[in-house]
Amino acid sequence: MLPAYLLALREGVEAALILGIVLSTLRTLNRSDLNRSAWAGASVAAAASLAVAVGLRLVGATLVEPAEQIFEGTAMLLAAAILTWMLFWVNRQARHQRTGIAAQVRGSLARRPIFWLAFLAVFREGVELALFLLAVGSNSAPLQTLTGALLGIATAALLGWLAFSSSRRLPLRLFFRATNLLLLLVAAGLVAHGIHEFAEIGWLPTLIDPLYDVNGFLSEDSFLGSLLKAMFGYNGNPSLLEALVYAGYLAVLGLLVSLQSHPARLQSAA
Q: pTM of this prediction?
């Protein structure tokens, strides 16, 4: 439930901020009469995203081996790739997001309806969330995934409302930095689990399987083990290939994200 909550919270906050910027820009331009169009676009996008999530879940449920492993492995690696892109995008573009969206709103008034601007912005976040929930849902029960996602979306809606209606400024930069760290661990787990699915059908060599076995100390079936598995892809008896992929992803991406957050280090290293 926790991975679904975290992912829904992160995607929901981004969608809420985008919609909030659209509405506040319309108010600044004295075009609050278009608020209904913006809300309609966001609502239709949410419904379409839900349909995509249900469709992906139904497709996955009908598959059998080896198609099931191929589908799940591909979904996990694709979700990890999008999460990775998101980490870099937030560090590079988040500070300019408000001005960029405001400019799109002004342009939309002349070229296309606000409905489609709101729809496309929210639908993008919704489709990403649908893919993420499909990937992390393999490690938890469907009801837990759904509950976590709904709680995350509700929390995101509350944070979005507070961000634009409260006189107190929310520490959104701190929020994104903290979730970046957690999502980095989630993405590493998705990559390792995706590799595990492909190794299971013989597409990749396991090298040594298992590399070690600590299930006697911390079983995947225990409360803490199942929590770590659902959250970060914990495996008590991984193969050497899984361990190398997990550690390598964390080392490389952690370094790149850190260097991007501190460009002075890049200049001094050059």
A: 0.77
